[in-house]
């Protein structure tokens, strides 16, 4: 990829702005903005300390441990890795078709985790941006600010998230490190008491999810043109869909549409993803850059996650989410919605769908069934793909005769969105950071753009005192010309 | 909405990733305390919880408690551990996927419109956090000392007898 703003022609004539690490983005990231002599942003790069060591962490372990082991890769979305690995090990043990009980219990778990993840993102991470505006004081633009201004809304966010966590606990057996999904099925179904326990609150959850969608729409339409344009880029989009094109999170075929909504590929067997997706490496980033191989490295980048899924699917199977999808798609006027801030809207439509889907499953007798597991002829490799909350997640494993993992390959959701995030940063930087002095407001704009993707740069390590933020402005001679420090107590100081 | 019977008066909440080197101090402490509780019948008035990291919903776990002890790994505390009184506080951890215990207390107070129960943080000195790393020997030594501090009730005696507002005890 040699986008003009990514690799500037005369970097020696530029000065460099470094923002690190990002706040409200898990893990450590760094944004480098390179200015030219005329102060225009000529180069923008999101550097991410990649999930290095994942594959080595997994290699040498027996395949049957994978669904449990991989949860430790990420403290943010352990259930996504749990289910993707379980699907890969299904293939390894020759389980071509799960029992209805196993598949539905896994789906319930997946809806629970998507619900809690989306609830966290909206109520905790992004709603302050949307509710208070991007120029609001940082210390107000957090959940405390939400609580102070809308205490009932904040409590709904906490309880929606808690409910999703309870779905995970009931289906996985434990709050964390669950063992619910195993190669070929699940190790438990739900008891009737557990079903009744979850049924008690699900109607309330649907109501709150609908309320969140309504609130988001109100905010979005109040500044409609701004939200359409902010960090907006035109991209292809990829996601799983069901055979009939319906929205899908757990299992289906891969669909990729171009920026105009035309089909690039459809209903692709995800076990053959390597035939359709490739990854490139850049010397300035640890994170790879996936692309659709038929389009090539320069034009083949794409977006995944809620925006891609809602754009790509033909319909939702649940009525409330389907009604919201139609309203959402209407703003595209026949074309895919490319608004980066549309991620927030799409995410809440998915939240609503998950609550509806959970309600349906809690009325399905299969989830209390006893036929939990199946198997067939052992295979030497397995591939599992799911739609994690942040987008398509690929797990691929190859094992030896003893069942030990020899090779592991993962493409995580955030990696799929790597190029897209860079593109959005460039858009924002070029629009808002044009030669001005570093300021908190300018930093906010970049962070808001990145947060829309809800990237998970998790390392699940949280040693207290290790998350300061530093924003540097360095000229092409290496001289520091401006610097902002954001300390762990939230204080921001100019230190130059 | 937590599927449990009425909460015990004391809560010990450990957190960390067991596969991230010394970040395992929290979850390992959980395992040791759980085993101790089962083997000895002690700590029957204590609920034990653990997670990868703290989040907003954990504010609900704090409800109806008399005392709360968070246990975490830290690279800046003194060896082998430090105990400190927590004060509900908005801090920058609100703005990440993970929260500090002080910020969880703050969420508790906001959604309950009430003071959070007295809460303390036991930080065990850690050194390395790499994925797939085993816990370091020094961290393991610190863990054992911290476990003794909890299991023999020292932590409770200290918080009951000391001026907790000034507490910042070296282990």
Tell me, rounded to a whole number, the average pLDDT of chain A: 83
Q: What is the average of the pLDDT values of chain B?
A: 86
Order of helices and strands of chain B: EHEHEEHEHHE
Q: Using CB atoms under 8 Å apart, which protein chain pair has the greatest interface?
A: A-B, 61 and 46 residues
The share of residues in helices of chain A is 25-40%
- What share of the residues of chain B does DSSP label as strand, in percent? 15-25%
- Oligomeric assembly: heterodimer
The DSSP helix count of chain B reads 5
Helix content of chain B: 25-40%
**Total DSSP E strands of chain A:** 17
Radius of gyration of chain A, whole Å: 22 Å
If classified by CATH, what would the architecture of the largest domain in chain A be?
A: Orthogonal Bundle
CATH homologous superfamily assignment of the largest domain in chain A: Cytochrome-c3 Hydrogenase, chain B
What is the domain tally of chain B? 1
Q: What gap, in angstroms, lies between the N and C termini of chain A?
A: 35 Å
| Secondary-structure class of chain A | alpha+beta
Strand numbers in spatial order across the main sheet of chain B: 2-1-3-5-4-6
- The name of the CATH superfamily of chain B reads HybD-like
Q: What would a concise description of this structure say?
A:
The complex is a heterodimer of chains A (496) and B (171). Chain A contains 15 helices and 17 strands. Chain A is an alpha+beta fold and 496 residues long.
Key traits:
A: alpha+beta, Cytochrome-c3 Hydrogenase, chain B, six-stranded antiparallel beta sheet, B: 171 residues, alpha/beta, Rossmann fold, six-stranded mixed beta sheet, 5 helices
Description:
The complex is a heterodimer of chains A (496) and B (171). Chain A is an alpha+beta fold and 496 residues long. Chain A has two domains: 11-49 and 417-494, no CATH class; 54-415, Cytochrome-c3 Hydrogenase, chain B (Orthogonal Bundle). Chain A has helices at 54-58, 66-69, 78-92, 100-132, 143-149, 151-172, 192-222, 224-229, 296-299, 306-312, 319-330, 342-361, 413-416, 418-432, 440-452, and strands spanning 15-20, 29-35, 41-48, 181-182, 185-186, 236-241, 253-257, 263-268, 277-280, 289-292, 302-303, 381-388, 391-399, 405-411, 469-474, 480-486, 492-494. The two termini of chain A are 35 Å apart. Chain B has a single domain (10-126, 136-170), classed as HybD-like (Rossmann fold, 3-Layer(aba) Sandwich). Chain B starts with 9 loop residues before the first strand and ends with a strand. Chain B has 171 residues and is an alpha/beta fold. Chain B is globular. In chain B, helix 1 (25-40) links the parallel strand 1 (10-15) and strand 2 (46-51). Chains A and B meet through helix 1, helix 4, helix 5, helix 6 and helix 7 of A and strand 2, strand 3 and helix 3 of B.
């Amino acid at each position: 990829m040699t986008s003009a703003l990514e690799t500037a022609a005369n970097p020696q004539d530029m000065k460099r702005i470094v923002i690190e690490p990002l706040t409200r983005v898990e893990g450590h990231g760094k944004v480098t903005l390179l200015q030219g002599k005329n102060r225009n942003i000529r180069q923008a790069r999101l550097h991410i300390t990649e999930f290095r060591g994942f594959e080595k962490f997994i290699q040498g372990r027996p395949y049957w441990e994978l669904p449990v082991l991989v949860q430790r890769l990420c403290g943010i979305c352990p259930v996504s890795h749990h289910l993707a690995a379980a699907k890969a090990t299904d293939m390894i043990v020759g389980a071509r078709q799960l029992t209805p009980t196993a598949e539905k219990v896994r789906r319930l778990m997946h809806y629970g985790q998507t619900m809690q993840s989306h609830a966290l993102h909206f109520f905790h991470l992004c709603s302050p941006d949307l509710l208070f505006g991007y120029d609001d004081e940082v210390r107000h633009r957090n959940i405390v600010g939400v609580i102070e201004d809308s205490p009932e809304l904040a409590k709904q966010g906490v309880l929606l998230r808690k409910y999703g966590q309870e779905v995970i606990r009931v289906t996985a057996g434990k709050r964390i490190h669950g063992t619910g999904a195993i190669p070929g099925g699940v190790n438990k179904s739900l008891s009737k008491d557990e079903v009744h326990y979850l049924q008690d609150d699900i109607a309330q959850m649907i109501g709150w999810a609908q309320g969140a969608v309504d609130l988001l729409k109100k905010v979005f339409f109040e500044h409609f043109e701004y939200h359409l344009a902010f960090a907006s880029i035109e991209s292809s989009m990829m996601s799983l869909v069901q055979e009939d094109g319906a929205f899908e999170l757990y299992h289906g075929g891969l669909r990729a549409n171009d920026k105009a909504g035309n089909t690039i590929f459809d209903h692709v067997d995800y076990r053959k993803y390597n035939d359709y997706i490739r990854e490139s490496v850049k010397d300035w980033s640890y994170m790879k850059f996936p692309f659709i191989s038929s389009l090539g490295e320069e034009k083949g980048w794409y977006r995944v996650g809620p925006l891609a899924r809602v754009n790509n699917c033909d319909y939702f199977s649940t009525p409330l989410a389907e009604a919201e999808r139609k309203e959402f798609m209407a703003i595209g006027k026949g074309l895919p919605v490319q608004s980066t801030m549309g991620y927030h809207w799409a995410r809440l439509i998915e939240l609503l769908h998950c609550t509806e889907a959970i309600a349906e499953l809690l009325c399905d007798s299969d989830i209390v069934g006893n036929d939990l597991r199946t198997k067939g002829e052992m295979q030497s490799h397995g591939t599992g793909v799911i739609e994690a909350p942040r987008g398509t997640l690929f797990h691929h494993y190859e094992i030896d005769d003893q069942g030990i993992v020899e090779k592991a390959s993962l493409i995580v959701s955030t990696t799929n969105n790597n190029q897209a995030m860079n593109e959005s940063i460039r858009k924002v930087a070029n629009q808002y950071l044009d030669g001005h002095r570093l300021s908190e407001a300018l930093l906010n704009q970049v962070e808001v753009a990145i947060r829309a993707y809800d990237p998970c740069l998790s390392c699940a390590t949280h040693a207290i005192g290790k998350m300061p933020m530093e924003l540097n402005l360095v000229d092409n001679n290496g001289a520091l010309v401006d610097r902002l420090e954001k300390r762990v107590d939230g204080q921001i100081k100019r230190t130059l | 909405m937590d599927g449990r019977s009425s909460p015990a008066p004391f809560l010990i909440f450990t957190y960390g990733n067991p596969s991230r080197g010394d970040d395992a101090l929290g979850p390992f402490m959980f395992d040791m305390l759980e085993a101790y509780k089962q083997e000895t019948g002690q700590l029957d008035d204590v609920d034990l919880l653990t997670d990868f990291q703290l989040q907003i919903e954990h504010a609900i776990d704090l409800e109806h408690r008399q005392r709360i002890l968070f246990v975490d790994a830290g690279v800046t505390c003194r060896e082998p551990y430090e105990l400190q009184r927590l004060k509900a506080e908005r801090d920058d951890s609100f703005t990440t996927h993970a929260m500090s215990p002080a910020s969880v207390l703050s969420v508790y107070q906001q959604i309950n419109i009430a003071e959070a129960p007295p809460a303390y943080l036991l930080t065990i000195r850690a050194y390395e956090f790499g994925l797939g790393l085993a816990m370091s020997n020094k961290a393991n030594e610190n863990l054992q000392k911290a476990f003794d501090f909890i299991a023999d009730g020292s932590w409770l005696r200290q918080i009951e007898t000391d001026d907790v507002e000034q507490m910042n005890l070296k282990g």
